[in-house]
């Protein structure tokens, strides 16, 4: 495949395919790749935010009292900047930020399956819409993760490092209506928090790449 063909209409196809092509051709700069990654992460966070609002419309009042704290999210042990502003203020390397993003995406593979399975029988008026959005989140998360795996392979060992954060809560989110809604809401709120971090970190990476104008090969 020539560099010219790399820069053809194919670069506008699926994100992982784009990164694969760039791995063997320098026609598409990292800034473009990270721009596409940022767009996908923005969609991911928007979906989780919309879903949270849908759930809030029929969330039991007691749920706001007994919902677990954010510190109980299975990814809370991963030390990360809280948002884009903090990531810009502290000294976190390009490779380390990419590693954090990939670690968070990896940590949500199993929990997203739990959310998808649980959405099938969720006692909520918008159950069908919620299920469809969870499916979309899974697709975007996988596609983004696959693309960043390829990008990290070109950036050295630090970017390829992943912190494993196992999900140990199992597949059962509860037996009664209130338990199901509360546990589903909690797991989704954890994902929303992490998707915000993923989106923020990728935007920081995009800004840094725009200043350096690096090439892949």
Automatic annotation (TrEMBL):
It holds the Pfam family Hormone_1. Gene3D superfamilies: 1.20.1250.10. The keyword DNA-binding does not apply. Its main location: secreted. One of its GO terms (molecular function) is hormone activity. It is found in: Secreted. SUPFAM superfamilies: 4-helical cytokines (SSF47266). GO terms for cellular component: extracellular space. Transmembrane segments: none annotated. Keywords: Disulfide bond, Hormone, Secreted, Signal. This is Prolactin. It comes from Seriola lalandi dorsalis.
């Amino acid at each position: 495949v020539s560099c010219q063909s790399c820069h053809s209409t194919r670069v506008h196809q699926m994100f992982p395919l784009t990164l694969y092509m760039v791995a063997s051709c320098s026609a598409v700069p990292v800034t473009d790749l990270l721009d596409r990654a940022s767009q996908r992460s923005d969609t991911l966070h928007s979906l989780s935010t919309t879903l949270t609002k849908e759930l809030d419309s029929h969330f039991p009042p007691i749920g706001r009292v007994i919902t677990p704290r954010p510190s109980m999210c299975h990814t809370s042990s991963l030390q990360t900047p809280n948002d884009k502003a903090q990531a810009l203020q502290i000294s976190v390397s390009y490779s380390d930020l990419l590693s954090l993003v990939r670690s968070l995406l990896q940590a949500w593979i199993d929990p997203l399956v739990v959310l998808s399975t649980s959405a099938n029988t969720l006692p909520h008026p918008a159950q069908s819409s919620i299920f469809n959005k969870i499916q979309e989140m899974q697709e975007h998360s996988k596609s983004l993760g696959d693309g960043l795996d390829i990008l990290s392979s070109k950036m050295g060992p630090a970017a390829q490092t992943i912190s494993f954060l196992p999900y140990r809560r199992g597949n059962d989110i509860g037996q009664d209506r209130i338990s199901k809604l509360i546990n589903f809401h909690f797991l989704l709120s954890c994902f929303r928090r992490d998707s915000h971090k993923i989106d923020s970190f990728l935007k920081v990476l995009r800004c840094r790449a725009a200043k350096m104008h690096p090439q892949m090969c």
